[in-house]
Design brief:
Layout: H1 4-20, H2 28-39, E1 52-56, H3 64-70, E2 75-79, H4 83-95, E3 101-104, E4 118-122, H5 127-133, E5 143-148, E6 162-167, E7 170-175
Parallel strand pairs: 1-2, 1-4, 2-3, 4-5
Antiparallel strand pairs: 5-7, 6-7
Length: 181
């Protein structure tokens, strides 16, 4: 069963998407699939060590906004430079009264950096470029969580402390100790 906040999200995204085309998920089952994909890493994330998180290129809310709904004790800053997508994120934040969410209508590298315990991203760019884009947010304790496709193995050749969790065609790339890489 989908939690009430996710039902509100599903209704609003389907309504907003008809006019503004912010996601390829065009029906309820596709949105639910994206929600489940976004939430899957909760199973293996060390949540007790995470207080602040950023999501790069949040788009329609996957995964950052969905994680923020599930994890109210973690503050999420969602970076989405496309105004119509950022507006939708603001709509959800306001509608659901999410106090743990900040929406930034900027590219991550253009914002004033701060230390983040978790950095997530889905379908933005390759791993090396992502790490470079968010390097000012990374400390020795930062965990990177990148939602990747089937070609993830090609992107980890330069990494040392990482693990790949697989579910269907999705690869969840969890990287620790980025500074040592």
């Amino acid at each position: 069963m989908i939690e009430k906040d996710y039902e509100v999200f599903i209704d609003l995204i389907l309504k907003y998407n008809r006019v503004h085309n912010i996601t390829g998920a065009k029906d309820k089952s596709a949105v639910i699939s994206n929600i489940e994909d976004s939430l899957y890493p909760i199973k293996f994330l060390p949540l007790e060590t995470i207080k602040t998180a950023i999501d790069i290129g949040t788009g329609a809310g996957f995964p950052g906004l969905i994680l923020a709904i599930a994890l109210p004790d973690i503050h999420f800053t969602l970076f989405e430079p496309i105004a119509k997508k950022s507006s939708f994120l603001h709509l959800i934040k306001t509608t659901l009264k999410l106090k743990n969410v900040t929406v930034s209508t900027k590219r991550v590298e253009q914002a004033k950096a701060f230390e983040a315990d978790l950095i997530s991203s889905r379908a933005v760019t390759n791993t090396d470029i992502l790490i470079n884009l968010c390097k000012e947010y990374i400390t020795a304790k930062t965990i990177l969580l990148f939602y990747k496709g089937e070609r993830v193995d090609e992107e980890v050749t330069n990494l040392k402390n990482y693990k790949i969790y697989k579910k269907d065609k999705r690869n969840y790339l969890l990287i620790k100790d980025v500074i040592k890489c």
